[in-house]
Amino acid sequence: MTKIGGSEIQNGESWDTAFFAVQLQHAIDIAPLNYNGSPSLTNVIIRHNAPSSPDNPNFMGGGFTSFVGNQTMSNVTIRENEDGGLYVSTGSLTMYDSTITQNISYTSGAGISMNNSERVLSNVTISENEARGESGFGLGGGIYSTGSGAGSTLTLTDVSVTGNRANTSGGGLHTSYTVLTLTNVTIDGNTAKDGFAGGIFSANAKVTMTNAKIVGNSATEEGGGILLRYSGSAEPPEMTLTNVLISGNKAETGGGLYMHTVAPVLTNVTIAGNAATVEGGGMYVGFKSTPFVRNTIIWGNTAGSAPAVYKYPTASANADFSHSLIEGAYNGDVWNISLGTDGGNNIDADPQFVDFQLIASRPQMATIGLRMDRRQSTRGTTTYTRAGRRRICPRSRPNWRAIRANATTRSTWAPMK
């Protein structure tokens, strides 16, 4: 039985007695509006609901709408609702062990739409939602979040955002003025149908991404996997990507990662197997962008030009690479300045991938793991012993070995001493 708050009575006359979708809606309809309430929903299904005015472009949250209050949801399923699954404004939301799927929106935020609020999601699946809006809408197939003034915060831990679609941008996530923190997150198979940022769009706020997979997303314009943008006049906000896999994404420019006026720090990132029809298959370093790239692999990406890295041709755009493996980094022994700055200890050598994945089964080892094909020649490449220790076979220029820099990484490179 589906109950709210463990109640034994389900007559639909209050939050505590709501049962089944029709009775839940009845409880919502008759309950007094409480702008400071903090209801908790547990073991609830919210399904097949629609707004009374579906053509109203300002309506969001056909499944559930919350203003100001502090919501807690656990083991909740929000599915197949019209004009959005969940809308939260000027309050807070804590959700865990829940699923948001197959909702549609004629505005933005088909799965979840949030405005000026604090959101914490843990062990949540957001899948197959579609934002169909046009003319400034159609943003955020899975999640749409925006803020003003102090902005909003969105924290995702152990969250999967898969197979969502946006008509305009942010197939998986579209965030602006939102402090975004992603940990152990998968963004997979999302689409921006007629716009940019198939996986993640983030603008004008701090971004912290750790142990994440951004794979198989697509956009018709910029940023197949991730698009990071800043439009302010001050220094751009802090953006860090650590132990992130960006693979199998595609777009017109910036197949894996697209940047505009930002300065993210990339550490232990693998950007491989992405595609752009025009420029920057792996990474597009756009106007006034100055990323710092450390202990990172960029290999096997494709594009009309600059398959690994495209750097906007002005002095304001520059990427700084160190301790990284970058395809096309050298012309003979000479650094390829079209990529950016050689910060030292970089190599240009085929890693001979079999696959690339996050190794979740051995948390003490792992983040991004590169499994090598031992049947091929391993000269100059990383291999693993049966115990999971890393080693590298000698190569002439430069002399390298791979090491485990600490107890939580498997993808750190360092020069042999």
Structure description:
- The chain is an all-beta fold and 417 residues long.
- The chain is built from one helix and 41 strands.
- It has a 15-stranded parallel sheet that branches. The chain has a ten-stranded parallel sheet with strand order 2-4-7-10-14-17-20-23-26-30, with no helix packed on it. The protein has a five-stranded parallel sheet with strand order 6-9-13-16-19, with no helix packed on it.
- Strand 38 and strand 39 form a beta hairpin.
Main sheet characteristics: 15 strands, parallel
Beta-strand content bin:
35-45%
Distance between the termini: 64 Å
Radius of gyration: 23 Å
- Beta strand count: 41
Number of helices: 1
Range of helix content: under 10%
Quick summary of this structure?
The protein contains 1 helix and 41 strands. The chain has 417 residues and is mainly beta. The longest helix is centred in the N-terminal third of the chain and has 11 residues, at 20-30.
Provide tags for this entry:
single chain; 3% helix; 1 helix; ten-stranded parallel sheet; disordered C terminus; 44% strand
Outline the fold blueprint.
Elements: H1 20-30, E1 40-47, E2 64-67, E3 70-79, E4 86-89, E5 92-101, E6 104-105, E7 112-115, E8 118-127, E9 130-131, E10 143-146, E11 152-157, E12 160-162, E13 165-166, E14 173-176, E15 178-188, E16 191-192, E17 200-203, E18 207-215, E19 218-219, E20 226-229, E21 239-247, E22 250-253, E23 257-260, E24 265-272, E25 275-279, E26 283-285, E27 292-294, E28 297-299, E29 302-305, E30 309-311, E31 320-322, E32 325-326, E33 330-331, E34 334-335, E35 341-342, E36 353-358, E37 368-372, E38 382-384, E39 390-392, E40 400-402, E41 413-415
Parallel strand pairs: 1-3, 2-4, 3-5, 4-7, 5-8, 6-9, 7-10, 8-11, 8-12, 9-13, 10-14, 11-15, 12-15, 13-16, 14-17, 15-18, 16-19, 17-20, 18-21, 20-23, 21-24, 22-25, 23-26, 24-27, 24-28, 25-29, 26-30, 27-31, 28-32, 31-35
Antiparallel strand pairs: 33-34, 36-37, 38-39, 40-41
